[in-house]
Design a protein that fits this description.
This is OmpA family protein. InterPro entries: OmpA-like_sf, TSP_type-3_rpt. It comes from Psychrobacter raelei. This protein has about 230 residues and is of the alpha+beta class. Strand 3 and strand 4 form a beta hairpin.
Length: about 230
Amino acid sequence: MKLSSLISVAVLNISVLSLVGCQAVSTDTDSPKQIVTTAIEASQLDSDEDGVPDINDECPNTPPYRVVDEKGCIVIVSDFTDTLELEMTVFFAPLSSQLLEDYNLEFVKTGKKLKEFPKAHVFIFGHVSSKERDVISRSGALSIERGLVIKNILVERQNIAPERISIYDCSDRLRMQATASAMADRNIESPNSRVTIRASNVINDLNNITGLAVTSSYEKFSQHCDLVNN
């Protein structure tokens, strides 16, 4: 197991779907074994085995043993009881910095967890879709604006000190894949019109992550996102 302890700040679906592809049945130790196969309906397929069927999974290819919400997206993981690694994704309407739906409950729980770990640093990664990038001349402006919206929520509503928060512009360089049905269910035109929120009490500078246990989960942001002076 990659993680020895899991901590959640939201109501999470952490059930693991256990599927048996075959079972050996025998009534005589000397007789040939019968192999019984069980067909799995397409609606129950769970390719990344996070407990959320592919048809409803908005965050496919989740790494093993990660805590996810009912949409299949990682919310919080922690290696130890005194270590915080938090991840949350929020989506926006196309060409807009207005959130698609009410995330108040998620932000309240996130704020509470951040107060339990006062040394944890918050990383806000703003993204745009390729279509948004092609329509507007400065895609960075939209991704930064989206990041500022999230920062303001954390500062003004959850009383998180602004110096604990860093905003990064990722433009469309880190694309997320989602099934058509999942996008339709949430009225999402593109899963890339989003902000990814990470918080860690292990990492506070993406320029200095070499050799840390959680390095791999931050490398893509370090390589493809630019720090914004705000």
